Structure formats: C-alpha cells, structure tokens
C-alpha cells in the first residue's frame, strides 16, 4: 500500500520545511510513504527548499496556475507514481501532520473513498467570528449543492483512494474543494469526515483577499459546478421563475379585460407573453444541457478508462515515477527531486 502526500505551494519558503518535518514517516497499514510538492510558480525558492528537506517529488509550474490546477496536476502525478491513497495538505503547515493517520484509516478499512478533515472551526482561536459564520454558511450551501454532509466542506486536508482519484476531474481554476465534493455526491462515492487538529496560524490566506471576494468566488464556483452536474434541474428552476413572473402581468391583463373595461392593458399582455416565452426557451435549453451532460459523463468514463490503461502500461514497463506523468514534459512545468537525481 503506497501513500503519497501532496502539498500545493505558492511562495511557502518559510513554512515548507516545518510542514514536511511534521509529516508522518510510518503509518500502520501503509508500506510506502512519499511526499509530493507542487510549486505553483513560486519566486522564493520553495522548490529548492522542498527538495533539500527530503521531498521525494517536486513539480514546478513555471507560472502561477492557481490552486485547483495545481491540485489536479498533483493527483495526476500521484496516480502515475502508483499511489493507492493520496492525501492533500497545505504548505502553510495549517494542518497537523500526525492526523494523516486518522485521515487514511477509513480508506484502509474500506469504509470510504474520500475522507475530509474537520478543522472544528468553532474551537479555532485565530478564526474570527465572521470567518466562523462564513465557514458554517459555506458548508451548509455546499451540503445542499453536493448532497455530501460534512461539517467542514472547504477543508483542504483530505484523503482520496486511488479509485476515487481516477474519477475526479477538476475543471475549476479557483478552488478544488467545492467542485470535488459535488463530484463525490454526484458519483455516489463513499465519504467520511474525521476531526483533525490545526497548528498555529503562520500567515493570512492567499486564496482570497477579503470575505466578500471569498463568497463571490466560492458561490460562483458552486453554482457553475452544480449547473454542470444538474443542468436540467438548474434551468428548469430558472425557467419556472421567469415564467411565474410572466404570469403576473398576464393575470393583470385578464382581470382588466374581463372585469373592468374589456380593453387596454396590452402592455401587460406583451410583457407577460415575452416572459413566458423566455421561460419556455430556458426550459428547452435545460433539456439540451441535460443531453450534453450525459455525453460529458460518457467522456469522463472514457477518461477514467484511459487513465487506468496508461498507468497499467506504465507499471508493466517498470517505468519509474519520474517518467510516468507525461504532463511534466510540457513547457509550463518541470519535475525534479530525489528520483530524478537517482537517474543521473
């Protein structure tokens, strides 16, 4: 059983050392533990420090590509490197590395495909009241969008089985946390949430500049992902709302026509007819989007099979982890680390 702990980083030179030092070296039930750092275009030497700390693999984006894309690259690499379980943690040493054992236990026991760490934000001292309320509200919204009932939906401390990682396809550029949970619910993956500890705060979040910005980005991501996976329901609700608004001026026209003057109020008829037409068109668009969604599901199934075939062929050829991920050969990214050095 092989575990790869991946750490997306952006200018984490001051914290990557303590983060790596805090990671477990041995876990019961795990035969091999390796560390993977995805340096998202850092300019402070994060990659070099990570390699010096004994990280087994370092992927570096030549320019900043965002947390979600870095997370996706890490998953692809870890799968290619033969990981049976992938744990994601942050480079600012927010999460307690010793709790990784608790995080992977449900997967080792066969109870879950995805495990989310619950930071128990109500007890975190450095979380402001506003941030706690936002976290609770955000988790409530995500639960309704994804049908995945976890108390800390935006926690980045999570474990993923190999089978689940094969099915996860992150397309958002902002954050993977919400989109991943929507896919977990949509694809009926088994999941659990376990309480975890956090370390003292080392810096402010770089993912968003303000609470308003976080709500805006997270809300738009959740709506976009929900529309992607539930297009018929989304467009039906929108179309029904527009049509309902259109019924109001239509009723106004009928009231005046039948019971008052018998004439006039043509503007109400025009406006109501237009809104009813827009509502109907929206519903038809939803039907088309639903058909497209089914085609997307077929594409995802094909992609999962392609991933399995690629990794099986690579394993059969005895390729090492530095050669498996073909994405590492593109101009935006290079790979180095202990395995790469061993080849020289």
Describe the structure in your own words.
The C terminus is likely disordered. The protein has two domains: about 220 residues, Spore Coat Polysaccharide Biosynthesis Protein SpsA, Chain A (Alpha-Beta Complex), CATH 3.90.550.10; about 90 residues. Helix 5 packs parallel to helix 8, helix 7 runs parallel beside helix 8 and helix 9 runs antiparallel to helix 10. Strands 7-5-6-4-1-2-3-8 form an eight-stranded mixed β-sheet, with helices on both faces. The chain has eleven helices and eight strands. About 50% of the residues lie in helices and about 15% in strands. It is elongated, with a radius of gyration of 24 Å. It starts with a strand and ends with a helix. With about 350 residues, the chain is α/β, with parallel strands linked by helices.
Percent helix among the residues?
A: 40-55%
Task: Return the structural class.
Answer: alpha/beta
Low-confidence stretches: 321-344
Going by CATH, the homologous superfamily of the largest domain would be: Spore Coat Polysaccharide Biosynthesis Protein SpsA, Chain A
Distance between the termini: 28 Å
The CATH class label of the largest domain is Alpha Beta
What Rg is obtained from the alpha carbons, in whole angstroms?
Answer: 24 Å
Q: Please indicate the count of domains.
A: 2
Main sheet overview: 8 strands, mixed
Please report the total strand number as a whole number.
8
